[in-house]
Design brief:
The complex is a heterodimer of chains A (945) and B (73). Chain A has 945 residues and is an alpha/beta fold. Chain A contains 29 helices and 36 strands. Chain B has one domain (3-67). Classes of the chains: A alpha/beta (945), B mainly alpha (73).
Chain lengths: 945, 73
């Protein structure tokens, strides 16, 4: 595939319905009203020279290169800022225009280095192109005048350079930072000849507020902002469109390649989730794929204290099969199980659950969604009928009120956050429910109308109080409820929420949120127009996570905010394929498409196609598997792309479970923390090394395309096939497309999905079937999938994790922009310059009481365990609340979290742990001991050993 | 698997279904356990219930007994 060159229309598309017809250079063209002359010209097949215009930002009209003449009008207007008009006749190429453009280019080039042959942008430079386009042959001013050629280069950012000597001050970077990303980190400082691009307050990029999304680099028409990888490698020669393997936004990228080497990842304009935008992870943090820590050969060992021994694929696969067979023969069919990964493809996930159900003969399969969004699956299925979000991302452009609950989009879902910020800057109102002051509460040009800074663990009380206001103040949409929901259930629910004990005044004592603020937020949500809920793990990772999901669904139904654009209930999925892993039947109780395994008709279709009899009983969830392992009844596990020793709660319990098993098989890119307790290591492949699909948070299925050979020799799906074949349950697939064909055959909501369709449409949102051949952007439009919407009573049950004299503070955990989940990938990139250790955020009041200064080592202790890390004193957290991330194994934040979990799904209660914080001298005894075990258990024997 | 953990989990489930006005709590709890608990977990809690079921909330005890075919007492 050649290098994909996307058309730059110069200015954004007009969404007007009315059209206008005009003539440009004798060509008649019809475009939407409000379109610029520049864009209309592109539609007519004519390129008007330009420098300061690009279609990702609004027209600016500064470079004076795109001038045109209009018959009957005076002057030479800029085509980027001049809208089309009915019947006008435009000329883009006249003698007068040629002279003006050459003059403009002469001025630009008189203050620009003439180093084209050695410039990193050679061959990809718009300034160079424009010099050619206008026929520049000389610079009459010479090069000896005052200039910027000696301006110092800023190389502080690990991924791109800023070379002001090459800057033409077109403001594209500044406008991209504002309009595309919404960070406002850049500005043009100074005036006239002194004007220059300034990051922050004339700081280096790394010291400024820049979030390294890459929008400025992409917008730059010269080599001023340039990827270091391009400087190092050179220009790419071909590109492949694929899907990012980081968060649940699922951005489309062009992997721009030179041979099998990635030169850069460039966000794809046609990507329907990201529309050409990116974040620091997807855009730049792909270096882990070639990191020296990658394990490229299979390894086995008898005991976890033995050094690893590199073996052939045949020996490793044979060992896994013989061990699993031995263990099943000795301890029973259900003594083994496995875990699918939200980081792997749909096809790979599907195969793992198939191997377990059909090959192992039990349903002991679970997925990492267990510890993040399993309550979403349960709660939304119960209330609406489908275990997924209701909208596409673009729906937010029509929201008038955005309600964010327990999510931090600017850090965890940054590209969607940029779209959301754009809508908020355009006037939509924002309500934030979060114990922590996330950036969106107040940032440049965005300010929440209400921040309900509730005490961790009180979500359900608060959502019911919001409902109380809506019901008792007559703000419910009765017509919608009567038509779309079960009216009797609604009345029961309304009577419940209307009880005085659920009023904001009563609930204020529980949540710590002033009653007036609750009332105001409820009124805004109910009466502010289209209201959309976006939520994250601050909702689900609680003992009442499922109840809270249903509470949000209640709120949306009661106010009629469901079933059209601009509204809905939208889970922001943490990992790239959480939605897909759940869709693919990874939970122990259900097949693909969320159909319970006890359903005889469904099970029969799987039995018929797979040629085996399947167990109709649910299997063990991850925490159940670990409990059973500690008890001695669960003996072997196959873990694909998941690091439960770092990501799951109560680390010491997880470790105890793993240590008690006789065969732990870890399939991953690196020797992760779980591999410390493994007997077999199977080296996996990155998303760059295989074909498949990911499904993002808006149910969008996007293609993952192989851009380089697998470094370990096998894609992850091939490894599962090999294990299955060795176990005596043969699988026959030549390509992942055949796996998708099988998924489509077995899953009604995927019935219309195929690689051919994905190639044709780019991506598709399920349900995709005969009724919706091109997918379903918005769900529940005319009726809920379950029929009538189901209202659920949301009685608040306080968590049993309580503060007290020993543990007086509440710990809550989360993510940071530059790191991803357990950090296995991002810690192996230059992203560590922004976050090289987990920090404990603590309020100044709590810090002072404990004699803790900013940067001090502190011990964080709960009844489950203790760890040490450095303190960061900040008012982002309220007094009584502390916060940390879990990206670094040295910290092991989950040593502290407890075994409490959601009542319905066993999703761990990460967000509420009673802790004490005290000054410390350094790592705890556990950390030191674990570090020793970790180093010992990672040892790989030399071939001669 | 340790009955203590199962008792805790079952009581959590019980609290939810007890609050649902339009659904019989015993049926709801039993149905939930059937749908989401592995048979070994159900066997363990059923055996525990047969031996008195101390620590199980009354409605949960009824549900567990219904689950194992032992009628409510």
């Amino acid at each position: 595939m050649p290098l994909i060159q996307e058309t730059d229309y110069g200015t954004p598309v007009s969404k007007a319905e009315k059209t206008v017809t005009l003539t440009i250079d004798g060509v008649k063209v019809t475009v939407p009203e409000g379109t610029s002359l520049m864009r209309a010209a592109v539609d007519a097949g004519i390129q008007v020279p330009k420098l300061c215009a690009t279609d990702s930002v609004a027209a600016f009209g500064s470079c004076r290169l795109c001038l045109v003449e209009i018959k009957g009008r005076n002057g030479t207007p800029a085509s980027c800022t001049t809208p089309v008009a009915e019947g006008i006749e435009v000329s883009t190429q006249t003698e007068r225009l040629k002279q003006i453009r050459r003059g403009v280019m002469e001025l630009y080039i008189s203050d620009h280095p003439l180093d084209c042959l050695t410039c990193a942008a050679n061959g990809d430079c718009e300034l160079q192109d424009m010099a050619g386009a206008v026929g520049l042959r000389e610079v009459r001013y010479g090069y000896a005048g005052e200039n910027h050629l000696d301006a110092a280069k800023d190389e502080s950012n690990p991924y791109f350079t800023f070379d002001p000597s090459k800057c033409i001050v077109c403001s594209r970077c500044v406008r991209a930072c504002e309009e595309v990303q919404g960070t406002f980190a850049l500005t043009i400082d100074g005036r006239g000849f002194a004007s220059h691009v300034s990051a922050g307050i004339d700081q280096d990029f790394i010291e400024s507020e820049c979030v390294s999304c890459g929008a400025c680099v992409q917008a730059c028409p010269t080599a001023t902002l340039m990827e270091k990888s391009v400087i190092d490698i050179g220009q790419p020669e071909h590109s492949v469109v694929t899907t990012c393997a980081y968060c649940g936004v699922g951005c489309s990228f062009k992997a721009e390649m030179r041979g099998t080497e990635v030169v850069r990842m460039v966000p794809y304009k046609d990507g329907k989730a990201n529309h050409g935008h990116s974040c620091v992870k997807g855009r730049f943090a792909w270096g882990y794929a070639t990191h020296r820590d990658r394990i490229l050969n299979p390894m086995v060992r008898e005991k976890i204290s033995d050094p690893w021994r590199e073996v052939s694929w045949d020996e490793a696969i044979g060992h896994v099969a013989s061990e699993f067979k031995r263990i099943q023969a000795k301890y029973g069919r259900t003594a083994v199980g496995g875990i699918t990964s939200s980081r792997c493809t749909n096809e790979e996930t599907y195969l793992v659950q198939k191997l377990i159900r059909a090959g192992f003969g039990n349903n002991n399969v679970d997925t990492c969604a267990r510890v993040c969004h399993s309550p979403t699956g349960y709660g939304l299925k119960e209330t609406f009928g489908t275990s997924a979000g209701t909208q596409d991302f673009d729906s937010v452009t029509e929201a008038e009120v955005v309600l964010i609950i327990g999510a931090n989009p600017t850090d965890a879902h940054p590209v969607f956050a940029s779209q959301m910020k754009r809508r908020l800057r355009a006037g939509a109102k924002l309500i934030v429910l979060d114990p922590r002051r996330i950036d969106l509460v107040r940032m440049p040009h965005v300010e929440a109308s209400h921040h309900l800074q509730l005490k961790p663990g009180t979500n359900v009380a608060l959502i019911t109080a919001l409902a109380h206001v809506i019901v008792t103040e007559g703000l419910a949409d009765e017509a919608f409820v009567r038509e779309r929901c079960d009216w009797d259930e609604f009345q029961d629910w309304a009577a419940f929420v209307a009880e005085a004990r659920n009023s904001p005044e009563a609930v204020s004592a529980i949540t710590g949120v002033p009653a007036d603020a609750i009332r105001a937020a409820a009124r805004l949500y109910a009466t502010g127009g289209n209201a959309a809920i976006y939520y994250g793990l601050g909702v689900t990772e609680h003992s009442q996570g499922t109840t809270m999901v249903m509470g949000m669904a209640n709120l949306a139904m009661a106010t009629g905010n469901i079933g059209r654009r601009g509204v809905g209930v939208n889970p922001l999925r943490g990992q790239n394929n959480v939605q897909g892993a759940c869709d693919m039947g990874s939970f122990p109780h259900e097949f693909t498409g969320y159909r319970h395994i006890s359903d005889d008709v469904t099970r029969a279709t799987f039995e018929a196609l797979w040629g085996v009899t399947l167990d109709a009983e649910p299997g063990l969830r991850i925490p159940n598997m670990l409990d059973a392992a500690v008890d001695g009844s669960f003996k072997a596990i196959y873990i694909q792309g998941e690091d439960i020793a770092q990501s799951d709660p109560d680390t010491q319990h997880v470790v105890a479970g793993l240590e008690n098993m006789e065969c732990v098989v870890v399939q991953d890119l690196f020797l992760n923390e779980t591999a410390n307790f493994a007997h077999v290591f199977l080296p996996g492949s990155t998303f760059l090394e295989k074909d498949g699909t990911f499904t993002n948070a808006e149910r969008r299925i996007g293609r993952v395309r192989k851009v380089m050979p697998s470094r370990s020799g096998m894609a992850d799906w091939e490894i599962t096939v090999a294990i299955s074949n060795a176990m005596g349950f043969p699988m026959h697939y030549a390509h992942p497309s055949e796996i998708m064909d099988e998924i489509a055959e077995l899953t009604p909501t995927f019935a219309g999905v195929s690689y051919d369709k994905l190639d044709a449409l780019g991506s598709v949102q399920w349900p995709c079937n005969e009724a919706a051949p091109e997918g379903t952007p918005i769900m529940h439009i005319d009726h809920f999938v379950r029929g009538k919407g189901h209202f659920v009573i949301t009685e608040y049950v306080p968590t049993d994790e309580r503060t007290g004299p020993r543990f007086p503070l509440l710990l809550t955990t989360g993510r940071i922009l530059s790191q991803y989940n357990v950090g296995a990938q991002t810690r192996r990139t230059d992203n560590v310059v922004w976050h090289h250790e987990d920090l404990l955020e603590i309020h100044p009041h709590d810090a002072e009481q404990r004699g803790v200064r900013d940067g001090d080592w502190v011990r964080l202790q709960s009844r489950a365990g203790g760890t040490s890390l450095r303190a960061k004193i900040t008012e982002r957290v309220a007094p009584g609340v502390v916060y940390t991330t879990f990206h670094h194994p040295e910290t092991q934040a989950n040593v502290v979290t407890t075994e409490f979990s959601d009542w319905a799904t066993n999703c761990p209660e990460y967000k509420v742990t009673a802790v004490q914080v005290s000054p410390s001298n350094g790592p705890t005894e556990w950390q030191s001991r674990y570090q020793g075990i970790s180093e010992h258990n990672r040892h790989i024997a030399d071939a001669a050993e | 698997m340790s009955p203590d953990r199962l008792i805790y989990m079952a009581n959590q489930i019980g609290k939810y279904f007890e609050s649902q006005h339009r659904q019989n709590a015993v049926d709801g709890i039993a149905d939930h356990l059937r749908k989401f608990w592995d048979p070994s977990m159900r066997r363990t809690i059923s055996a525990y219930a047969k031996n008195g079921g101390e620590g199980l909330d009354p409605v949960v005890l009824q549900a567990v007994r219904a689950l194992s075919g032992v009628g409510p007492t």
